[in-house]
From TrEMBL:
Residues 145-314 form the Ion transport domain. This is Calcium-activated potassium channel BK alpha subunit domain-containing protein. It comes from Saprolegnia parasitica (strain CBS 223.65). It holds the Pfam family Slo-like_RCK. It comes from the Eukaryota.
Length: 1030
């Protein structure tokens, strides 16, 4: 097998998958027989990879990454426990560089050198024949400059560079003969070869000198390299005008050189210099014809006639091309013309500029390796100006194509070459007022893809973005590979971020990549590197079989500084495979999928390669054992080596989210009707509430998170908190789902979070947490922003941003009022002490007169003096930071984070909004970040289950908690903390760094999986996954 694949493959001990016929595509017998016949004759190209499959027990459950069902993959049996991990060859790496910025820069350098060689042509040596092989040399324009500057040496050096560049193109091109016979290939040959011939030749033959003069003229054709640079631009009027101008200039320049060579002979009465030839060509083409310079040889006359015919032919064709631009024809109305041996994915539906920019950044992020896919966008409308600029970026211009159309139309499915697509992403407009209609459109597009794929006999993976949960079963019936319910996922993450401060930032950090070079250049504060880790999948090989989870997690962190988060298990006693967070004391089986928080996909290959060595050397001293760095290949992500999902999970949504009508279990003790419960909740007072949760926004956002919040708080604290809903409209039964049971500890208050008085009225400054959603009263802002993508999108989040400002102001006012009450209480204590008022009477008076102060300050004291000392100590400890209310604000666009306070002068919020303090503290959740989850599912098919497990609230799974740092670990490193918590059956995911003078941070911030040498401070908190608090 190894000889078949060549040196680009490395054998690793990895799990083998079943060749059960149920997992293979349902092809007919004709296609199977055809494949078997062609399997022995087809060449093994880059995209034709063999996947080894070994036999397993027929009654065993197949692995989720069993088979890639494409027409370009061959399956063969191999030795058990052996597989081939793809490592790109040098040629493939050079191909990737030639299609990136490096290739553009090389072409720019080549073009500049070509123009320089054309200037050298004007100073070239002109050898004249005199008196029977007697030679004299005269210089063109500058008799001494050519030898003084040694231009010949410089020119031959540049020619060597041209030759190397030509050979590089010849080595990396897919079709060699197509490149050799192309215009650029021919120009390269006729400009490189003559230069070497003239440099190496020593002959003085007259005929040879004549040929060399013609060869010398061909050097002027190097200027035609500019045509390649012009072609890299998008089509349009400026493009065609540039081609027309360049063609005329190139014809004139080359024609002048040829005419000079034909007229340069010793018997001519007037010697012809290059400027004379250029003058003659311009006068001739302008049809002026002064007659001071004429053609004197037969070849010159024939050449002038051919030139006039060529110009008469070229100029009208170019003018016709320019005239055609006045007719409405756009590039997005054309069809996608894929490159040979290149796969592509289709992105359809609602294509918003900011969300799609994040999608492309995540899809082509360098941490994944070399991504061998192109992206074809099928949008509903023509591309906007901002979208055109995005797709014209040098990083995406050669990899993306934008087309206007719909997947529901047959012609548009053919235009995007759906029969050759690897996957289809259907994005939804989450800001649409009619969620049901948007989901229906998504399902119809998915059904169109399914029908088209069935008719062509090819299976296409489909990734859907749904808004509501009503069509959950339909997406599985249609056959969607992955369905992301955005509202459900958003509610889970937001609820977890409310219960566990900072969890929003932690979870979003795990599903997004960041440009480390850009972040290091723009930001050097304490949060640098806090967003450099994300979740990668790893298929456990035979080396992991039988090892306990905690032992594998310890070795992976100790050897590779990566955190093993969860395992996709295939236990026989379970009805369905599922993702298990931290399955401590359970063995890892060969073929299980692990989910690792790591810096890049290279680490995954490194773990597979070196894990056995860590097990063998585990008895050695850890201080003397260095971290392994043996695997340095850049993985190539292509059709053949993607990790595939076994099948969609056919579990109903009700199985993962318990019904809210389970009265005893979740604290629903009310037997009133929904109308009566709403009326009762509206009339209840909120003055005596403390440690409650305030939810601000429209009811359609708030209602889905009520039960999630209560369940999560009950799992953490063992009690249900009071929920105060600040709504701008009166609630009605129509705002709730059918058979909805309203909890008894829910309060409705009419008002808006845009007013500080209303926030104070619901007790937001002393609440346990505040959740801010947009109001439907700002819906007209959202409609205006969504009507035109190029319009200002800052109004989308106007209500939430201003609500954050009002909450900060209300907290400051409450702090000022509390200080005033504390000072007044001090004055009262002085008066009571001087008048010897009984202690019990003083305590009763202060508790009743100052309700905003903690009654514990006055109770349980032995004297008025001790009460005064306790009050002074409490006043000294009270700071504005201590009254910071934990909150989560839900934004639509990430670009609007720049309006959230406070600002950091080290961070440019326009370029890197996700390093802003409000986002890093977990106070802001950005709705558009969920688009990255759909992109991540393409590479990691079980990422949605992992994120749902992190944010969800299953009773039999570990819970994400924010706990105080154990005092014994203060001053140690984060690596010590991870290993210590693993011994206690807990997984540490990061730190929550509170404001600290040494760190200089204004707000707390989330530090996701920091380096192992990071020192722990006394004010740090830790994010852990554990079943019980430690």
């Amino acid at each position: 097998m190894s000889s078949t694949f060549g040196p680009a493959y490395t054998q690793l001990r990895t799990p083998r998958t079943s060749t059960d016929a149920s997992l293979l595509p349902e092809d007919d017998e004709a296609s199977r027989s055809t494949s078997s016949k062609m399997g022995a004759t087809r060449p093994q190209a880059i995209h034709q990879l063999r996947i080894d499959c070994s036999t397993m027990q027929h009654d065993a459950t197949p692995a989720p990454d069993a088979v890639v069902a494409t027409d370009r993959v061959y399956r063969e049996r191999s030795q058990r426990g052996m597989t081939l991990v793809y490592a790109p060859t040098i040629r493939e790496q050079l191909q990737a560089h030639m299609t990136s910025r490096v290739g553009v820069y090389l072409e720019l350098i080549n073009t500049s050198f070509s123009v320089l060689c054309c200037l050298f042509y004007l100073f070239q040596v002109r050898n004249d024949l005199e008196n029977h092989r007697q030679l004299t040399c005269s210089k063109l324009y500058a008799p001494t400059m050519y030898d003084a500057l040694q231009i010949q040496v410089v020119e031959i050096t540049l020619t060597c560079y041209f030759a190397l560049h030509y050979l590089l193109h010849l080595y990396t091109t897919e079709d060699v003969w197509q490149f050799v016979l192309s215009m650029n290939g021919v120009i390269d040959v006729i400009t490189i070869v003559p230069a070497f011939i003239m440099f190496l030749s020593t002959t003085h033959n007259s005929k040879a000198l004549t040929i060399f003069r013609v060869f010398r003229v061909f050097r002027a054709l190097r200027v035609l390299r500019l045509y390649r640079l012009i072609r890299s631009r998008k089509h349009g009027y400026n493009y065609e005008w540039g081609v027309f101008t360049f063609s005329i200039c190139a014809i004139i320049f080359v024609a002048a050189g040829i005419f000079q060579a034909l007229e340069d002979y010793p018997e001519r009465s007037r010697s012809i210099q290059f400027h004379d030839a250029l003058y003659f060509i311009l006068v001739t083409l302008a049809t002026i014809g002064y007659g001071d310079i004429v053609a004197t040889t037969t070849l010159s006359e024939i050449f002038v006639m051919v030139l006039i015919v060529a110009v008469v032919t070229v100029v009208p064709s170019q003018l016709t091309r320019l005239n055609a631009l006045h007719k409405p024809r756009y590039a997005h109305d054309d069809a996608y013309r894929g490159r040979p041996k290149k796969s592509h994915v289709v992105v359809a539906g609602h294509i918003a500029h900011e969300a799609f920019a994040d999608f492309l950044t995540e899809f082509y992020h360098p941490s994944r390796g070399i991504v061998d896919f192109e992206v074809v966008v099928l949008g509903r409308d023509a591309p906007s100006d901002v979208m055109t600029r995005l797709l014209g970026n040098v990083a995406y211009a050669a990899k993306t194509t934008y087309l206007k159309g719909s997947l529901m139309l047959e012609k548009d499915r053919s235009r995007v070459r759906l029969d050759h697509a690897e996957a289809v992403f259907v994005l939804a407009n989450r800001q649409s007022a009619d969620h049901a209609a948007e989901d229906a459109s998504t399902l119809l597009q998915a059904l169109s893809v399914r029908n088209y794929a069935d008719s062509t006999g090819r299976r296409v993976r489909t990734y859907l973005q749904m808004i509501a949960d009503a069509h959950h079963d339909l997406s599985h019936i249609i056959g969607a590979t992955q369905t992301l319910h955005t509202n459900r996922m958003k509610d889970d993450i937001v609820a977890r971020g409310t219960v566990c401060p900072g969890a929003c930032a932690l979870i979003l950090n795990l599903i997004q990549s960041i440009d480390q070079k850009k972040s290091k250049n723009m930001f050097s504060g304490p949060r640098r590197g806090s967003k450099s880790r994300q979740i990668y999948a790893i298929v456990f090989s035979e080396a992991f079989d039988g090892h306990l989870f905690q032992d594998v997690a310890r070795r992976i962190y100790d050897g590779f500084e990566s955190i093993l988060l969860a395992v996709y298990r295939r236990d026989k006693d379970e009805g369905h495979p599922r993702v298990c967070l931290g399955p401590f004391h359970k063995p890892i089986r060969e073929g299980d999928i692990g989910f690792i928080v790591a810096s890049s996909s290279y680490v995954v290959h490194q773990i597979l390669t070196d894990y056995s060595m860590l097990v063998d050397n585990e008895a050695d001293d850890a201080t003397s054992r260095s971290r392994s760095t043996s695997f340095r290949h850049h993985p190539l992500i292509s059709t053949s080596n993607l990790l595939h999902r076994q099948s969609p999970l056919h579990q109903r949504l009700s199985q993962s989210i318990r019904s809210p009508t389970e009265h005893g279990r979740f604290g629903f003790d009310s037997v009133m009707s929904l109308d009566e419960a709403i009326h009762h909740a509206t009339r209840k007072s909120t003055k005596s509430l403390s440690e409650h949760i305030v939810l601000c926004g429209s009811l359609r956002h708030i209602v889905p998170v009520i039960h999630r919040l209560r369940r999560m708080y009950y799992q953490l604290d063992g009690q249900y908190p009071s929920l105060v809903l600040l709504c701008d409209t009166a609630p009605t039964p129509n705002d709730f789902p059918a058979d909805y049971v309203l909890p008894s500890h829910v309060h409705f208050v009419m008002g808006s979070s845009l007013r500080c008085a209303d926030l104070v009225r619901v007790g937001a400054p002393k609440a346990k947490a505040v959740l801010l959603y947009p109001y439907d009263s700002q819906q007209h802002f959202r409609n205006e922003s969504n009507a035109d993508e190029s319009s200002d999108t800052t109004l989308l989040d106007y209500g939430v941003v201003t609500s954050l400002l009002c909450l900060e102001t209300a907290s400051d006012l409450a702090h000022v009022a509390l200080n005033a009450e504390s000072a007044a209480a001090q004055d009262d204590l002085v008066f009571y002490a001087s008048n010897r008022v009984p202690l019990s009477a003083v305590q009763d008076h202060l508790v009743g007169h100052y309700p905003n102060l903690n009654p514990a300050l006055f109770r349980g004291t032995s004297s008025i003096q001790s009460m005064s000392a306790r009050l002074r100590q409490h006043s000294a400890a009270e700071t504005p930071e201590s009254h910071e209310v934990p909150c989560v604000a839900v934004l639509t666009r990430g670009s609007n984070i720049k309006f959230c306070r406070p600002r950091d002068i080290h961070v440019c919020a326009d370029d890197l909004p996700y390093l802003a303090p409000a986002y890093a503290a977990g106070r802001v959740f950005v709705d558009s970040r969920l688009d990255l989850l759909l992109c991540q599912a393409f590479y990691n098919p079980y990422i949605t289950e992992v994120i749902h497990a992190l944010a969800g609230s299953e009773t039999d799974a570990p819970i994400l908690r924010l706990l105080e740092l154990p005092p014994a670990l203060v001053g140690l490193t984060f690596g010590d903390l991870v290993l210590r918590m693993l011994s206690s059956d807990a997984i540490v995911l990061g730190l929550y760094r509170c404001p600290h003078k040494r760190l200089g941070n204004l707000l707390p911030y989330v530090y996701t999986s920091p380096p192992h040498e990071t020192r722990l401070h006394s004010k740090d908190k830790m994010f852990i996954l554990a079943r019980e608090a430690i």
